[in-house]
Specification:
heterodimer, A: alpha/beta, Rossmann fold, 2 domains, four-stranded parallel β-sheet, globular, B: about 190 residues, three-stranded antiparallel β-sheet
């Protein structure tokens, strides 16, 4: 494993190997000395050209707990704001002898592009509306811990699918692990051409939340991404909530103890009601701690072994 | 744990002449003796924590714990320790899978920790284990018990309790098989 750009890069065995490593990394969080020496002397750069709290801090802590040196570069305050191209910024940073590059960029495909320019291992931390593989891994890992196995379990992914890279990565990851996936969105937020994809990838689509919820073994709510919306996708926030939000009434439709995920940040009262976000079955905070473990596992698998491809 | 290139264990090519050095009864006797030595040295099982090193140290630690419990009439704390992330050769090999580290409920602070492994060879695994222990707590003492000491140390490390000293050539291969993992109890050299 040289890069992590897409869930498609991973074999099912590699996903299970990452989960096994993550389980060990998870234990570190409860230790007094939260430090492992595995990545001593390696340097990881977090390049975030889009706002992020949890993903960036999660990668930063993950790198630091593995003893790597971690620095953060964000678009604001970097030479990008002076007009430097992505290629020049990336090559400049890599010329400093960086081993791992964690990149988030608003353009779909940015991480793949960057991986062709540099020798360092590249981790895609979200590229536009394309993929967010570590999020998918941590979601699947969280659900697997809760449900035992994902084989044959029914996962409902509900919300703004059009703008969601989380959904795109999650569908691949969950179906690979044997889960049955149904994605639900209002017609305006259902990606165009999803019919062909769902047929080939083997997941279902629906416009009706209330019909899907009673059968679900896990529910994943997606954020309404207003910052990516250029037009009006629904008449009002209220109307979205009534049609597609996980409200208190809908909570009652779920089987007992069905885990509720949300990749965050949550729009409370829009796609998810406080009753659902704070319910005992909500795994939102568990996702955060799992995310740390998964990112430690990813960095470990990419950077700890002997260098692959390119020069060290 | 052995140090040479990955995949050296447990395969034994048909053309290779395997020589059994310890059979199941030898292993059993060696473990019983180590258990008694530990008790004698520690003056009882109080504060004793047995930590098996992955992979084959784990069942060995459990077996020693059973023997000690039988003698003392009280259970002794057992755990497992994985040192993968502390190895000094991570960079020279493909990524290794980490295993589970599980400490007994009482932790290791102020306890006498006995590291248990199958083969003592270069000593690098034990070096890594000592580093790992330092991150997990502060034992009052650390001891080392191994089933086989085959020599060729690369670090100033020695075992406190040895099942069998097995002088070996560097090119030789010492294989430990245990029922829990391999279906049979045997130590062989080839």
């Amino acid at each position: 494993m040289k890069h992590l750009l897409s869930i498609d890069d991973l074999s099912t065995d590699e996903i299970h190997a990452l989960f096994a490593t993550a389980a060990d990394m998870h234990d570190v969080q409860s230790r007094e000395v939260k430090k492992l020496p595995a990545l001593r002397g390696r340097t990881v750069v977090n390049m975030f050209f889009e706002d992020s709290t949890r993903t960036r801090s999660s990668f930063e802590i993950a790198g630091k707990w593995l003893s790597a040196d971690v620095i953060n570069v964000s678009a604001k305050g970097s030479s990008t704001s002076k007009g430097e191209s992505l290629r020049d910024t990336v090559l400049t940073v890599c010329a400093m002898g960086v081993d791992g590059l964690v990149i988030r960029h608003p353009a779909s495909g940015a991480a793949v592009q960057v991986s062709e320019w540099v020798d360092a291992s590249v981790v895609n931390a979200g590229d536009g509306m394309h993929e967010h593989p570590t999020q998918a891994l941590l979601d699947a890992y969280t659900l697997q811990r809760r449900l035992g196995s994902l084989e044959g379990r029914h996962v409902a992914i509900i919300g703004d699918l059009t703008h969601s890279r989380v959904f795109r990565s999650n569908v691949q990851c969950l179906t690979r692990l044997g889960a049955r996936v149904t994605v639900v969105a209002p017609p305006t937020l259902m990606p165009s051409g999803i019919g062909a994809w769902s047929a080939s990838a083997g997941f279902e689509t629906s416009y009706d939340v209330d019909a899907v919820l009673p059968d679900a073994d896990a529910v994943m709510m997606l954020r309404v991404q207003r910052e990516r919306m250029s037009g009006a996708y629904f008449p009002s926030a209220r109307e979205y909530t009534v049609g597609y939000g996980l409200t208190r009434n809908r909570l009652a439709l779920l089987k007992p103890d069905v885990p509720i995920c949300h990749p965050g940040p949550m729009n409370r009262g829009l796609e998810i009601a406080a009753d659902a976000a704070d319910a005992a079955q909500s795994v939102v905070l568990e996702q955060v701690s799992s995310g740390l473990a998964i990112r430690m596992a990813v960095l470990y698998h990419l950077l700890a072994g002997e260098p692959q491809g390119g020069t060290a | 744990m052995q140090m040479p290139a990955p995949g050296t264990r447990p395969d034994t090519g048909p053309e290779r002449a395997d020589r059994t050095v310890l059979d199941a009864r030898d292993i059993s006797r060696a473990l019983t003796r180590i258990s008694h030595e530990l008790l004698e040295r520690n003056k009882g099982a109080d504060d004793l924590v047995l930590l098996g090193l992955h992979t084959r140290g784990v069942p060995l630690a459990r077996r020693i714990a059973e023997r000690i419990a039988a003698v003392e009439g009280a259970p002794v704390a057992v755990g497992e320790l994985d040192v993968t992330l502390y190895r000094d050769d991570l960079r020279s090999q493909p990524t290794r899978r980490a295993h589970k580290t599980a400490l007994p409920a009482g932790g290791i602070d102020r306890k006498v920790v006995v590291l248990v492994d199958d083969v003592l060879f270069s000593g690098r695994t034990i070096r890594a284990a000592l580093d790992a222990l330092a991150d997990l707590g502060r034992p009052s003492a650390v001891r080392l018990a191994v089933l086989v000491d085959r020599g060729h140390r690369q670090l100033p490390i020695r075992a406190d309790h040895v099942g069998k000293n097995l002088p070996s050539a560097l090119a030789e291969r010492v294989s430990v098989r245990l029922t829990e993992i391999d279906g049979t109890d045997e130590v062989s050299i080839s």
